UniProtKB/TrEMBL annotation:
Source organism: Paenibacillus xylanivorans
Listed GO MF terms: magnesium ion binding; phosphatase activity
Protein known as: HAD family hydrolase
One term under GO cellular component: cytosol
Keyword Protein transport in record: no
Domain of life: Bacteria
Length: 268
């Protein structure tokens, strides 16, 4: 079975790398023959540092679907059309917004240096913080604050883009039209109802809608409404649920194997 994991707030917390206990749990899944896929709002640049080295070549969906990688190689990157990007940049200036703009690798950050997103941004200094006028192809825009968030959201809804509001943080995530985690999973060859998904926020809704089983970590009204089940946003609770699901799958596989053996015995 394929297991798809969101990262922040799902299997890692407070922007820190995966703990030893979580890594051991994910390794347990792999040992049992399951495939792991990571699907995050983070671009690949910022996704890699929170994973152990031996997991950095696993299939990944970054930037809410804007980046898709397998075995460390780019499968696809979806950019905002130039005219739409220009319109968004004009809105940022108009509403005096603070923002993070992600290109294929480099970025442009204008916010508070103490903002949690800044602390988690390019921790290994793999990229450059470029000037706004140096931006070329834009994959994702994150609006950290603005003079009037509601007016900005209203304007964004008139553009062919995907927007997410992140929980109580009042952060707006902007991606190209048609880009989401499920689209990224499809680029990796994942089929509907062929995976189990773990997530905690609105950007996980598209992949939850196509999962065979979906686990909402913590309390999120919209995500909880479509999730198969919910679990507290505590690492131990999440680890226990992962192990429980893996053991149940193993039991079901054993029962299926016995049933098939009986069918073969009857046939012969």
């Amino acid at each position: 079975m394929k297991f798809v994991f969101d990262l922040d707030g799902t299997i890692c917390f407070q922007g820190k790398p995966l703990t030893r206990e979580m890594v051991q749990t994910l390794d347990f899944l792999v040992e049992k023959g399951h495939e792991l896929i990571f699907a995050s709002a983070r671009p690949i640049r910022d996704l890699l540092p929170i994973l152990p080295v031996h997991m950095q070549h696993f299939p990944m969906v970054g930037g809410n679907g804007g980046f898709v990688y397998r075995s460390g190689l780019e499968i696809s990157t979806v950019y905002l059309e130039a005219s739409i990007a220009d319109h968004i940049l004009a809105l940022l200036k108009q509403h005096e917004a603070e923002y993070l703009i992600d290109c294929q690798w480099d970025y442009c950050y204008s916010g508070n240096p103490e903002h949690p997103i800044r602390r988690n941004l390019d921790p290994e200094c793999r990229a450059k913080n470029v000037l706004l006028e140096e931006l070329t192809e834009i994959v994702k825009v994150v609006v950290l604050s603005s003079r009037n968030h509601q007016e900005m959201l209203k304007a964004l809804h008139n553009l062919p883009v995907v927007t997410y509001m992140h929980g109580t943080e009042n952060i707006i995530d902007i991606s190209p039209e048609g880009v989401n985690k499920w689209a990224g999973l499809q680029a990796l060859g994942v089929s509907p109802h062929d995976f189990i998904a773990f997530g905690n926020d609105a950007n996980d809704i598209p992949m939850f809608e196509y999962a065979s089983r979906s686990i909402c970590v913590g309390q999120h009204e919209k995500l909880g409404q479509i999730a198969s089940e919910m679990v507290a946003n505590q690492e131990k609770e999440v680890i226990d649920r992962i192990i429980e699901i893996a053991e149940r799958l193993q039991e079901e596989s054993g029962v299926f194997g016995e049933a098939m053996a009986e069918v073969e015995d009857v046939a012969t």
